[in-house]
TrEMBL record:
Residues 41-96 form the Alcohol dehydrogenase-like N-terminal domain. Keywords: Acetylation, Metal-binding, NAD, Oxidoreductase, Zinc. GO terms for biological process: retinoic acid metabolic process; retinol metabolic process. It holds the Pfam family ADH_N. This is alcohol dehydrogenase. It is an enzyme of class 1 (oxidoreductase). GO terms for molecular function: all-trans-retinol dehydrogenase (NAD+) activity; zinc ion binding. GO terms for cellular component: cytosol. Gene3D superfamilies: Medium-chain alcohol dehydrogenases, catalytic domain. It comes from the Eukaryota. Its EC number is 1.1.1.1.
């Protein structure tokens, strides 16, 4: 499926990318192709350049945290480039480097 939205002068589409997916507790991560929707109002979409698995992510993999809705994509401590922005986003522009703690 490929859909597109007209966003100002830009054509923003659903994109496909690779992600390490955790399917459940104590399951090996698998690399999957996923679809990422265009950013909605007050959201941004980031092209991840670097990420890792932190201790919190490791707890998710081990099943030590309750209320996790698997499957889940881990790696919330990441850095990348703003790829597109949703309506109402004024403090970031496409092409800006950021880390997920600052975005
Ligand atoms: Zn973390």
């Amino acid at each position: 499926m490929l859909s597109a939205l007209c966003h100002g002068e830009l054509l923003i589409k659903v994109i496909k990318c690779k992600a390490a997916v955790c399917w459940g507790p104590k399951q090996p991560l698998t690399i999957e192709e996923i679809e990422v929707a265009p950013p909605k109002a007050h959201e941004i979409r980031i092209k991840i350049v670097s990420t890792g698995i932190c201790r919190s992510d490791d707890h998710v993999i081990a099943g030590a945290i309750s209320n996790i809705n698997y499957p889940v994509i881990l790696g919330h401590e990441a850095a990348g480039i703003v790829e597109s922005i949703g309506e109402g986003v004024t403090n970031l522009q496409p092409g800006k480097a950021c880390n997920l703690k600052d975005c």
